[in-house]
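Dear V.,

Thank you for sending over the compound details. I've combined the ligand you provided, flavin-adenine dinucleotide, with the protein sequence from our construct and run the structure prediction for the complex. I'm sharing the raw inputs here so there's no ambiguity about protonation or stereochemistry in the SMILES, which I know was a concern on your side last time.
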Amino acid sequence: MERLDSEVIVIGAGLAGIVASLELLAAGKRVALLDRDIEANFGGLAKESFGGILAVGTREQRRAGITDTPDLALADWISFGELDAAETWPRRWAEAYVNECHDEVYLWLKERGIGFLPIPHWVERGQTQRGNSVPRWHIVWGTGQELIRQLLERLRSHPRREALALHFGQRVEELMVEDRRVVGCRGRSEASGRPFEARAGAVIVASGGINGSLERVRAHWHADWRKPPATLLNGSHAFADGTLHDAVQAVGGRVTHLDRMWNYAGGVHHWRPRKPDHGLSLVPPRSALWLNWRGDRLLPPLVTGFDTRDLVTRVCAEDRQYSWQLLNRRIALKELAVSGAEFNPSIRDKKKLAFLRDMFLGNRWLVDQLRDNCIDVLCADTLPELVRKMNALQGDEAIDCGRLVATVVAYDAQVVLGEHCQDEQVQRIAQVRKWRGDRLRTCGFQKILEPQAGPLFAIREFIVSRKSLGGMQTDLDCRVLDAAGDPIAGLYAAGEAAGFGGGGMNGLRALEGTFLGGCIHNARRAARAISQ
Ligand SMILES: Cc1cc2nc3c(=O)[nH]c(=O)nc-3n(C[C@H](O)[C@H](O)[C@H](O)COP(=O)(O)OP(=O)(O)OC[C@H]3O[C@@H](n4cnc5c(N)ncnc54)[C@H](O)[C@@H]3O)c2cc1C
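Below is the predicted structure of the protein with flavin-adenine dinucleotide bound, written out as structure tokens.
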């Protein structure tokens, strides 16, 4: 058996683990960072992420004429997450985040050379529950890839680099307890199966959520979503399988709200999968018609940007729990996007001209990639031809062409009337276009069957699993709490593993950007608590 020891063990080399390690090194600690993955994937999900971070009262907001305060953000947060007063730790974490994110997350990143796009995005505005009252989603210039690149550079060139031991390919399976204190962990090498034992004065679990295991996602499926869909795609980390959640529970730690998840309704199959059932999460175009499996329009209309959870709830309420989006090439060029670094090369690689070209002329590269490679993306010159392809993909004749033509013609007739029409989708499009950031990415009133805007596209969209909103319950020092609410000596949790703080600081819904932001915020708090 291989043995190692350190002052602090950090399990998981994602964003939370990296930030905790950086802060611990700065505080003079010796750190062992353990990860099951290979070193090429150092950075975990954040490296693949889009890099949107919720921040309050920023320079970018002020420049865009937005007045924002922690009080306003907290009111939005509590309403959107339906966080009631009994949820003590999630509420405290939410309060801490809105009050501290400006200095502890946003400025901390800026001081480390990380910049943001000039206009914050306005996501999760809320539908039945009030959401973001103002735009707060700040996108890292360079996406999550740049975020991780910069932080890893600092880690690797740290003046105390020799105090950091990196161990990749090491799967942690259990925590070690002696005299009611967590003193380390045990596991085995992924490659050789050789067991190891690591000892330290404190252990931080930063191993991510449970959403990389579709079995766990199904087991914890929220009651609001009826039953898990027959086809579910994986948009999380292959190793986010809950092994450490079990290990924490085995030593008496409390794990809460695992049925709260931030899944998306716009999932399509990745054509170069890096894990089983690998799904991409599309940002569903607002000007597309959102249809159920029979080709009937989902009414009231589904429009992205208001309540991501509601989109999932609505699709899961259907007999077959997937949906279709119907659009044309003009809409696709302007509005179609894929979340994450992989399919946003101009932002990821910080290419200003390409970014402006994509924004003003449309993202031809992305639309062509999806059309040519993705099994769920269909294209045709006429609606009858498209319906034939949709039915062929579904394997039956569920979509009635005549009914769908009538639906589209009726919608197009409303579109012509502009913002004064009766159609809620068109009204919402008019609403979002009032914000500069959305106007650039949303078509003016665009008919589906306009001949010059073709060809037509149909996209079959599945639910794609993404983030765990629940997790290990922690106090504000990130100490893992037991069933009685007492801290377990020596045991800390950070990042998605801790439900981004308190075992679920977002509540039922997230204002978005609280995931990356939450990892930075609570990892810094964990390191500070240990150092003090
Ligand atoms: C495509 C995409 C886009 C996203 N966009 C955004 C966004 O714009 N804004 C936002 O806020 N969030 C976004 N997210 C979510 C965000 O990236 C994650 O919530 C966050 O990065 C989680 O970080 P983490 O450090 O907690 O966990 P992870 O990144 O999951 O890292 C956990 C690490 O632990 C390791 N591990 C797991 N189990 C074990 C074990 N048993 N033993 C040893 N090691 C183990 C894993 O290998 C992994 O490296 C996005 C996610 C994806 C996939």
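A first observation: The chain has a mean pLDDT of 97.

Warm regards,
I. M.
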